[in-house]
Design goal:
CATH architecture of chain A: Beta Complex
CATH class of chain A: Mainly Beta
Strand content of chain A: 25-35%
Radius of gyration of chain A: 23 Å
Biased composition (Low complexity) (chains A, B): 205-219
Protein name (chains A, B): NAC domain-containing protein 90-like
Largest interface: A-B, 96 and 97 residues
Keywords (chains A, B): DNA-binding, Nucleus, Transcription, Transcription regulation
Oligomer: homodimer
Number of domains of chain A: 1
Largest sheet of chain A: 6 strands, antiparallel
Order of helices and strands of chain A: EHHEHEEEEEHHH
CATH topology of chain A: Metal Binding Protein, Guanine Nucleotide Exchange Factor, Chain A
Helix content of chain A: 10-25%
Number of helices of chain A: 6
Pfam families (chains A, B): NAM
Shape of chain A: globular
Distance between the termini of chain A: 40 Å
Region (Disordered) (chains A, B): 185-220
Chain lengths: 239, 239
């Protein structure tokens, strides 16, 4: 794993996050291996834009999402509410928490989503930085004679959460993503009008000609030519 | 790469697919390494549901998408149209082709999307099997005196395409995916009604209680208890 083949990266399912990573962290297992991928960090002390550089060493190149184990805060251990505020802003929950299921349809955790706001509540300004917080649920066997045989009680583990940080993008499909710098450049060039994509597949269609036009260093036909002008589509039988 | 850490998998960007994989394939480079990830296959001779088991050996475990290099068909080499029909059905294009851009905003390829229909055209029945076909565009320098200095002409490479096969799912975010078997089971249990997800994060919310109820082997409280009944949410300060 020192040198991954091109295109291989950490792209876990929620089940892998909870059943492998969070489970082993909660039980103190495989710590060195785990923390090369997901380090332990007080993420609620750190502005989200400073988190990517603190990601695990095997994920340092990732541009799309970053994972951390967040230890339970002291004030929470003492029975208080966890703090998710820092100098520049705060995390605020969105929607309701939801279950996470294993592939054999057992409940293995709970997921809560948050958005980062810049400023002070309740007047903060919403940003594109988002967070999914996962807590593990483990089943604990009870007295088999109490309500029936083989009954288990779900237990919510709170010592560590596993958090996924990401920047919400316009593209709904991760597969089509382009690096964030390119998207940012495009947005500024187009004056924030990103509504021009057609149904063909999102980002890469001819209506994005403004992108190439803004790329002043390159010197080729793409700057001024649209997709339709390059080829006579009627003659291209694969289309 | 013999033993990838949990959660690491082939999850390439379109730029990696074209600029690394397709480029090397077209130029006959790194063939052994390439084909362990993306093999060469006449995919238009094979029903899509038979393709996953033919994926590259490093991707054999993948459940979400499968990649192949498709060589140009003989009839296309002779100037005809490529055939995308087989005994049980056919691939049909959707939308318009679109450009694919590199991270420095240069056009590197063209992408075309298709859907598999079961039956004979034009009366086939649409399936959930989809395909993205990528062709590389390479810039060839022209006579520098013709229209200006350092001018390049885009050239569409046709000897191989790179195809991504996948099954369209209801979940718009790949991150939230569950294994296909679980989704299929859920769909059949719920009678195809998948409109009940709330805004919290898709698949894992309490409205999916029907899933656990259908899981007859497990014997715990999840079968009959909703998320709200397990805990008093008001007391859970992390919510």
């Amino acid at each position: 794993m020192e040198e991954s083949p091109t295109g291989f990266r950490f792209y876990p399912t929620e089940e892998e996050l909870i059943s492998f990573y969070l489970h082993n962290q909660l039980h103190g297992l495989k710590q060195a291996k785990l923390h090369r991928v997901i380090p332990v960090l007080d993420i609620f002390d750190t502005e989200p834009w400073n988190l990517p550089q603190l990601a695990g060493e095997l994920c340092r190149e990732d541009r799309e999402q970053w994972f951390f184990f967040a230890p339970m805060q002291e004030r929470e251990e003492r029975g208080g509410r966890p703090s998710r505020s820092m100098a520049t802003g705060y995390w605020k929950g969105t929607g309701s928490p939801g279950y996470v299921y294993s592939s054999d349809n057992k409940v293995i955790g709970v997921k809560k989503s948050m958005v980062f706001y810049v400023g002070k509540p309740p007047a903060g300004r919403k940003t594109q930085w988002k967070l999914n917080e996962y807590r593990a649920i483990e089943l604990w066997p009870t007295n088999p004679n109490s309500t029936g045989s083989n009954v288990s009680i779900p237990k919510l583990r709170r010592e560590f959460t596993l958090c996924r940080i990401y920047v919400a993008s316009e593209s709904s499909r991760a597969f089509d993503r382009r690096p964030m710098e390119a998207v940012a450049r495009e947005t500024s060039i187009k004056g924030g009008d990103a509504s021009a994509s057609s149904g063909s597949g999102g980002r890469g269609d001819a209506s994005s000609a403004g992108v190439a036009a803004g790329n002043a260093e390159s010197s080729n036909h793409w700057e001024t030519t649209s997709l339709d002008e390059i080829w006579d589509w009627e003659q291209l039988d694969w289309l």
